[in-house]
Specification:
mainly alpha; two-stranded antiparallel sheet; 19 helices; 59% helix; extended
C-alpha cells in the first residue's frame, strides 16, 4: 500500500536525525530561510501586526492551547483507565507515614486559604460578567446616540465636511447645499408623517427609473430614511399594481378572493389535515391545515375553466390563496399513494423528458383522447367517436432503449419468530422497480394506462361533486360534525386510491 505524504515526510525526518551532520545542516538551512522570510516581511512579530491581525493571532493561540490541554487530558484519562492497580504488598511498602500535628495544621490552613481564594474568584467572576454587560449596554447606547445625532449637522456643515481640502466652484458648493437642504427637509417630513398613505406618496414621488439606472435605490432609501421593504416592486409595476388592485372596485376584489378561497378549500382541490396539532396561526387567527391535491398552476387552469367569466392572473391567484391551504409534503400524507396515478405519472414524466408529449397534466391528456371530459361515455371509453383516439406522440427515436420507474406488487417470502422458532410465510409487498424497454413499448403502455385511467379520473371527480352537493343541500335537522367530515374524506380518498 502506498504511503501518504505525511508518512513519507515523517520517515525522511527520522532518517535525517540519525545522521547528526546532515541534521545540523538542515537546521542551519531552516534558520537562514526563517531570517530571509522575516527580512522580506512574510513573517512579522506581534508588535508589528495591526490590531485586527493581533486579535486573529491571539485567538488562534487560545485555540491551540485549548486543543493541547484537551489532548493532554485525554492522554491522562487513557493512562489512568488502562493502568492496573498496585499490588497489596506494594501498597504496604509505600504506605505514607502519619502526619504530625504541625503538618496537619498547615495543610488545614492551606485548604482554608484555597477555599477562600476560590470563593473570592467566583465573586469576582460574577462582578466581571456584570461589568461586561454594562460596558456592552453603554457601548450600544453610545452607538445609537451617534447614529441619531449624525443627521443633526446643518446642510452647510455637511457640505463643508464633504469638500474639505478640495477646491471647488461656488456653483458646486451651492448645488451641494441645495441637495443636503432638500434631503433633510424631506427626511424630516417623512419621519413625522404617521399616515401610511402619506408615506407611500413620499416613496412614489422619490422612486423613479433614473434611480434604478444609476444604481441609487439603496442610497436613496438610506438618505431619506425609509425601508426598502416598502418598495417591493419597481416603480412602474408598483403603480400598476396599486392602480389595478387598490383603486378598482373593492367589491370585485373581495368577490375574486372569496371565489379563490372557496375553490381551493373544496374537497376535490385540497384535503383537511386530521391531526389535532395540524393547525397554523397567523396574526392570532388559528386554522386547521389543508393540503393541496395538485399543483397551483394546474389548479389555476382548472379555476379559469370552471369560471370563464373571471379574469384572474396566476400571480393574483397565488396571492389570494389562504394561508392555511398548503402544499403537501411526504410526511403530510396519511393514505397510500394511488398506484395507477403514480405509474401513469412516471410514464408521463419520462415521455415529457424525451420530448414525445407536450404536457404532463392528466386533465389535458384526457381532453386529447375524449370528446368531452364531463361525459361519462367518453371517459368510460364507450363513445363511438373517441373510444379509439390516442394522445399524439411527437417525432422521436421509438427504438431507443429507456428505463422508467414502476410500482408493482410482488410475493415475498419473510421470516417471523413465533414462540422461539422462525416461521416462514409469503406476503404481498408493493415495491418500486426499474422498468426497461424501448420507447415504442413505453408509448404503448402509456396509451393503454391512460385509456384505463380516464374512467378512474371521472369516478374521482364525480364522487367529489356528489359529496359537495350532499353537503350543500343538508338541512338544519341533519347533524354533522368534524369527525364525520374527516371520516368521509378519508374514505373517499382510500376508495379513489383502491380503484
Amino acid at each position: 500500500m502506498a504511503l501518504t505524504s505525511a508518512e513519507r515526510s515523517r520517515r525522511w525526518r527520522e532518517r535525517q536525525k540519525q545522521d547528526p551532520e546532515k541534521h545540523q545542516k538542515y537546521l542551519q538551512k531552516e534558520k537562514q530561510r526563517y531570517q530571509e522570510r522575516k527580512k522580506v516581511g512574510k513573517l512579522k512579530n506581534v508588535e508589528e501586526l495591526s490590531e485586527r491581525e493581533k486579535r486573529a493571532v491571539r485567538k488562534q493561540w487560545r485555540k491551540n492551547q485549548q486543543n493541547k490541554r484537551k489532548k493532554d487530558k485525554e492522554t491522562k484519562n487513557l493512562l489512568s483507565s488502562n493502568t492496573p492497580p498496585n499490588s497489596p504488598c506494594q501498597d504496604l511498602a509505600h504506605e505514607e507515614a502519619p502526619l504530625d500535628g504541625r503538618t496537619s495544621r498547615g495543610r488545614k490552613k492551606i485548604r482554608k486559604d484555597r477555599s477562600k481564594a476560590y470563593r473570592e474568584i467566583n465573586k469576582l467572576r460574577v462582578k466581571l460578567a456584570q461589568k461586561e454587560k454594562d460596558v456592552a449596554r453603554y457601548k450600544k447606547r453610545f452607538y445609537r446616540e451617534r447614529v441619531k445625532n449624525k443627521n443633526l449637522d446643518s446642510p452647510r456643515t455637511k457640505t463643508n465636511t464633504l469638500i474639505r481640502g478640495q477646491k471647488v466652484s461656488d456653483e458646486v458648493k451651492r448645488t451641494l447645499n441645495f441637495h443636503h437642504s432638500l434631503v433633510k427637509g424631506i427626511r424630516e417630513k417623512y419621519r413625522l408623517s404617521v399616515d401610511r398613505r402619506n408615506k407611500e406618496l413620499f416613496i412614489n414621488v422619490l422612486t423613479s427609473k433614473l434611480l434604478r439606472k444609476y444604481r441609487l435605490k439603496k442610497y436613496t432609501a438610506r438618505a431619506f430614511g425609509y425601508s426598502r421593504k416598502r418598495v417591493t416592486l419597481d416603480h412602474e409595476e408598483n403603480i400598476k399594481t396599486r392602480q389595478g388592485l387598490f383603486k378598482r372596485d373593492r367589491t370585485r376584489v373581495d368577490e375574486l378572493q372569496t371565489s379563490v378561497r372557496f375553490f381551493l378549500q373544496r374537497d376535490d382541490n385540497s384535503r383537511t389535515a386530521a391531526g389535532k396539532k395540524d393547525s397554523i396561526t397567523r396574526n392570532k387567527v388559528k386554522k386547521q391545515k389543508r393540503f393541496l391535491n395538485d399543483d397551483l398552476k394546474n389548479l389555476h387552469d382548472k379555476f379559469l375553466s370552471e369560471f370563464p367569466n373571471l379574469k384572474l392572473s396566476y400571480s393574483l391567484f397565488c396571492r389570494f390563496r389562504p394561508f392555511w391551504v398548503l402544499k403537501a409534503t411526504e410526511k403530510d400524507r396519511e393514505t397510500c399513494l394511488c398506484i395507477k396515478h403514480e405509474n401513469l405519472q412516471y410514464q408521463v414524466d419520462k415521455l415529457k423528458g424525451l420530448g414525445l408529449i407536450s404536457t404532463t397534466n392528466f386533465n389535458a391528456l384526457a381532453a386529447e383522447v375524449c370528446c368531452e371530459t364531463e361525459s361519462k361515455a367518453c371517459m368510460y371509453r364507450e363513445c363511438v367517436q373517441c373510444k379509439d383516439k390516442q394522445v399524439e406522440i411527437l417525432d422521436g427515436d421509438l427504438g431507443k432503449q429507456v428505463t422508467w420507474k414502476k410500482w408493482a406488487s410482488r410475493r415475498v417470502e419473510k421470516v417471523k419468530r413465533v414462540q422461539g422458532e422462525d416461521v416462514k410465510y409469503v406476503t404481498s409487498l408493493t415495491m418500486r422497480e426499474d422498468e426497461s424497454g424501448s420507447v415504442m413499448c413505453l408509448v404503448g403502455e402509456f396509451q393503454e394506462n391512460l385509456k384505463k385511467n380516464c374512467r378512474h379520473f371521472f369516478n374521482i371527480k364525480h364522487q367529489y361533486i356528489a359529496l359537495r352537493t350532499l353537503r350543500q343541500n343538508m338541512t338544519e335537522s341533519e347533524l354533522t360534525g368534524l369527525s364525520w367530515k374527516l371520516v368521509m374524506e378519508k374514505a373517499l380518498r382510500m376508495d379513489s386510491a383502491g380503484q
